[in-house]
């Protein structure tokens, strides 16, 4: 029976589920008891642990790796770079530095996602483990940055000042460090605190599950709740709210595409592509709409009113 914190079902049924890279190495020690032909040999194995469908490692059986998501991640990098440039130009906008940091963190996660899900590196390799652990850390920090942008928007403290930026960066570093350490411990079993799964086949880690699944979902919900209050109650506006609703809808659809469509697309394409590229498109679109929402409630030039009445 699946318990809270078990990754076995996700690693089996969700192609290109990134955090499976962190369990492969520890179960490889008992490969004969746990791993099936779907995850062996390591030289050609795709992402996942005993996956029902996965894209073989690049260069094996004519595989191009997760080519669709590789291309989409590269294009998303360019798009996010434009958003960062556009955000930086709005010198007087509330939360400009904080939103720019959020976009920078998203920008950093894209090449990490490209590598950790692209079927470039050998399963169980130290390089793949290290990059996946760092990726997990940046994802946790990214969602803190998202939530912090909502807190900044309340104007409890003035944005762009030390009172805003010091806790902003401090907690971002804390989330990054904690999640990265836990990820390394899960993968390399450095200690018995977060390391070995019990039983090994369950791929069990509550802390990793909390930081990579529960925390992103919770921070997104809280962010949406705070921004709804600000837009409808404080600004008494309706039009910007549609941007936030659209962004939230795109994010939810991206997760549905990732978890529900990936295996269907993987099997339908004979293990050439999966649904991760659809999820990346929708996630990047959600970030783009989030920028439009922020733009719609902030001033571009200096003004006494920190918000723009749309």
Automatic annotation (TrEMBL):
<feature type="transmembrane region" description="Helical">
    <location>
        <begin position="67"/>
        <end position="87"/>
    </location>
</feature>
<keyword id="KW-0472">Membrane</keyword>
<dbReference type="GO" id="GO:0005789">
    <property type="term" value="C:endoplasmic reticulum membrane"/>
</dbReference>
<dbReference type="InterPro" id="IPR022057">
    <property type="entry name" value="Chs7"/>
</dbReference>
<feature type="transmembrane region" description="Helical">
    <location>
        <begin position="128"/>
        <end position="148"/>
    </location>
</feature>
<dbReference type="Pfam" id="PF12271">
    <property type="entry name" value="Chs7"/>
</dbReference>
<dbReference type="GO" id="GO:0006457">
    <property type="term" value="P:protein folding"/>
</dbReference>
<feature type="transmembrane region" description="Helical">
    <location>
        <begin position="273"/>
        <end position="294"/>
    </location>
</feature>
<feature type="transmembrane region" description="Helical">
    <location>
        <begin position="241"/>
        <end position="261"/>
    </location>
</feature>
<feature type="transmembrane region" description="Helical">
    <location>
        <begin position="99"/>
        <end position="121"/>
    </location>
</feature>
<protein>
    <recommendedName>
        <fullName>Chitin synthase export chaperone</fullName>
    </recommendedName>
</protein>
<keyword id="KW-0812">Transmembrane</keyword>
<feature type="transmembrane region" description="Helical">
    <location>
        <begin position="168"/>
        <end position="188"/>
    </location>
</feature>
<dbReference type="GO" id="GO:0051082">
    <property type="term" value="F:unfolded protein binding"/>
</dbReference>
<keyword id="KW-1133">Transmembrane helix</keyword>
<feature type="transmembrane region" description="Helical">
    <location>
        <begin position="208"/>
        <end position="235"/>
    </location>
</feature>
């Amino acid at each position: 029976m699946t318990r809270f914190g078990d990754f076995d079902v996700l690693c089996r049924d969700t192609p290109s589920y990134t955090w499976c890279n962190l369990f492969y190495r520890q179960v490889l020690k008992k490969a004969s008891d746990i791993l099936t032909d779907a995850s062996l040999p390591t030289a050609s194995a795709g992402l996942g642990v005993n996956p029902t469908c996965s894209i073989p490692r690049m260069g094996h059986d004519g595989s191009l790796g997760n080519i669709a998501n590789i291309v989409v991640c590269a294009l998303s990098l360019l798009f996010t770079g434009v958003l960062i440039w556009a955000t930086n130009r709005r010198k007087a906008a509330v939360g400009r530095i904080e939103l720019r940091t959020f976009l920078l963190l998203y920008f950093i996660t894209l090449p990490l996602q490209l590598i950790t899900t692209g079927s470039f590196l050998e399963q169980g390799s130290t390089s793949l483990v290290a990059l996946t652990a760092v990726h997990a850390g940046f994802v946790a920090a990214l969602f803190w940055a998202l939530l912090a942008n909502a807190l900044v928007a309340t104007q409890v403290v003035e944005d762009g000042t030390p009172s805003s930026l010091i806790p902003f960066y401090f907690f971002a570093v804390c989330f990054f460090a904690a999640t990265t350490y836990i990820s390394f411990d899960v993968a390399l079993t450095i200690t018995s605190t977060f390391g070995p799964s019990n039983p090994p086949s369950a791929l069990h880690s509550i802390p990793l599950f909390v930081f990579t699944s529960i925390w992103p979902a919770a921070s997104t919900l809280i962010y949406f709740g705070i921004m709804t209050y600000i837009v409808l109650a404080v600004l008494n506006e309706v039009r910007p709210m549609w941007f936030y609703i659209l962004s939230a809808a795109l994010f939810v659809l991206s997760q549905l595409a990732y978890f529900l469509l990936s295996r269907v697309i993987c099997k339908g394409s004979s293990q050439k592509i999966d649904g991760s590229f659809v999820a990346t498109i929708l996630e990047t679109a959600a970030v783009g709409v989030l920028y439009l929402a922020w733009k719609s409630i902030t001033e571009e030039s200096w003004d006494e009113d920190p918000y723009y009445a749309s």
